[in-house]
């Protein structure tokens, strides 16, 4: 299966894939769909790839470069000052027929290397719904850490996750293991801890 950078000519197939994935979900809260205009902006920035199997687009993953003055910039949530060096890990879709093959994480690694090679960015940020276990595990596999749990997007609980492209996080002290559903603890204490890894149903937190 090949990965390729997507262009405007791929937009109809990309929108069709998004619709197929959305309709297949039992819990549609886990997927924040994008508009055609938003896809065009992401495509223009150049950080969107697709997985092609037998000539068909079966998966896609992207990153998005926010403007420094963007409202509710994620850098403000984690105390990053240089917003010019921040990129967001954006949406990913996997066709139901191709789930369970590790495509999401493989595409994530490919995109991270694209961003590293670009050279403009130091930090990748994203938000994840606490109940979305596959997405959480994907982010941890890629090296992301939970920097904060808060309310975003009109009152929805979200982890704000961070990957430093050049300086991996070094943990210290003893781990505090918190069940992934214990968002009350995360909302109250999460700003003082870093969520480092996901083992079974527990996230290991370390003091900052």
UniProtKB/TrEMBL annotation:
EC code(s) of this entry: 2.3.1.-
Keyword match Cytoplasm: no
One function term, GO molecular function aspect: acyltransferase activity, transferring groups other than amino-acyl groups
Enzyme class: transferase
SUPFAM superfamilies: Acyl-CoA N-acyltransferases (Nat)
Keyword Ribonucleoprotein (UniProt): no
InterPro entries from the UniProt entry: Acyl_CoA_acyltransferase, GNAT_dom
Keywords for the protein's UniProt record, in alphabetical order: Acyltransferase, Transferase
Annotated PROSITE patterns: GNAT
Pfam families: Acetyltransf_1
Protein's UniProt name: GNAT family N-acetyltransferase
Species assigned in the record: Salinicoccus roseus
